[in-house]
């Protein structure tokens, strides 16, 4: 029962991670955030690998999933620092999220709760094929929405990492127990050999 509870809990956390990653992927696509889109895709693949490893009792897949979660926590910590402009990070200067291919920001910048977008006509600050807007009245700034999203991802990843290590350890112990108790190698198992029904009789001359 303990093993089933650990497996079921891990599958549950993986499903929550999958839903959260898909939700985040949609809004990153809408905001043309190419770096997060790539990271989200890799995360979705890793979560699916973790679910498969849990259901199929594959400890190696769970270890790979756990290693990825460490990288995922680091990536989300960087996103939090980026949107809070920790250190020398600046959203006005660094367009890391779009690989410096465009000036797009987070989708929540213009579509946050209560935000009112007003275009600025004939602005000299606008580059070619771009327009300047002002955003006001937001109940929650887009930076904090992105920070909350990344903090949620870190929370789920930490719990997933703990349970992945636990379930992987249980699987490894079961494999060792099988080799000791019921494994073929433990008893020096050999396949049965066919015996001939012919009997040799002494030859008298």
TrEMBL record:
A family per Pfam: NKAIN
Subcellular location(s) per record: Cell membrane
GO cellular component: plasma membrane
Sequence similarity: Belongs to the NKAIN family.
PANTHER family: SODIUM_POTASSIUM-TRANSPORTING ATPASE SUBUNIT BETA-1-INTERACTING PROTEIN 1, T-CELL LYMPHOMA BREAKPOINT-ASSOCIATED TARGET 1-RELATED
Entry keyword Glycoprotein: yes
Topological category with respect to the lipid bilayer: Multi-pass membrane protein
One Gene Ontology term from the biological process aspect of the record: regulation of sodium ion transport
Record-annotated membrane-spanning stretches: 37-55, 62-85
Subunit structure: Interacts with atp1b1 C-terminus.
Protein name: Sodium/potassium-transporting ATPase subunit beta-1-interacting protein
Organism listed in the record: Lonchura striata (white-rumped munia)
Major place of residence: membrane
Record keywords, A-Z: Cell membrane, Glycoprotein, Membrane, Signal, Transmembrane, Transmembrane helix
Signal peptide: 1-21
